[in-house]
Amino acid sequence: MCTKTPLVVGKVLQGNYNAFIILEFIGEGSYGKVAKCKVYGRNAIVAVKIIKQEIKVNVENELLMLEVIGLLNADQAHVVKLYERFLYYGHTCLVFEMLDMDLFQHCLKKGSLCVNDIRPIAKQLLETLQALQSLGVIHADMKPDNVMLINSEYLPNRVKMIDFGMARHSYATRRGDLCQAISYRAPEVTLGLPYTESIDMWGLGCVLAFLYLGFSLFPVHCEHLIMRCIVETLGMPSRRQLQKGKNTKSKCWKKNHAHRKSFIDLLKKMLRLDGEKRISPTEALQHPFITMSHLSHDPRSRDYLTEALTSSGQPETSRFWFKLKLKLGANHAVMQTFFS
Fold this sequence. Notes:
Blueprint: E1 12-14, E2 19-29, E3 32-39, E4 45-51, H1 57-69, H2 74-77, E5 82-88, E6 91-97, H3 103-110, H4 115-134, E7 137-138, E8 147-151, E9 155-161, E10 168-169, H5 187-191, H6 198-213, H7 223-234, H8 239-244, H9 257-270, H10 281-285, H11 288-291, H12 302-311, H13 316-328
Antiparallel strand pairs: 1-2, 2-3, 3-4, 4-6, 5-6, 7-10, 8-9
Helix pairs in contact: 4-6
């Protein structure tokens, strides 16, 4: 049984080859803490990840992945350097090179980035993914928090990837495994499909969008909402994906796709560049998005239709006739083609 000892500023962590004096704590999470440390007897500064005693499985996985990634040239592959690992009163301690700040903090401080600044970051991270792919490794947790600037003052836009706690070999993936932060999670992971290294490319795309926008492309915190956002932005997954996914049967985001498509169609007609071809109020009032006629054939939409009619303040007579048409399966709206 390991004896617990307080981890405080000024504490000396005795490693296998060096001692490390804790200067300050610069990060904390479910795994433990990250301390900025001075190497005893030298001027070198390092970052020491101090992992909680009770976390075992994730530690072993991260150590295994760091050992594999150690085959790479860390500077050329733009991954963080691991200098040393040791045990300190039951805590696994990993000594890394000291970096500056992560891209999330950078955007909070500076705001969104221009494309000229995003390009070199994109190039470096693509080289990282290329290097990881050559080893058959999936990072599986691409997000702005896990990409750090080396030195924002002297080496602007130079970055390295960190945190391989969720990394895995591509041959060891299992269908239905959950990985990646929700806002950066590839649809095949959410749908419960087999996945490959390409989920890291999805994550990188979301990271680059974050840098440009200053906020997440899919700023949500649950699986249902992430798929709704993806469908609204990029369209529905293919029929093959929906049929083969383990997690698709219970997803109600599929039901509302026709309604969102109808809404977008109305917006396109309202925003036509040629004023003479722009939809009129009379025509717009007969558009399926307003009449909801495109939902009348779907029994799953009846509760929504009733609620929508109530909230829109339609008189009882109108609601009666609408319900009658709904019951008879009436479909009185005519779909117009885009930009005709």
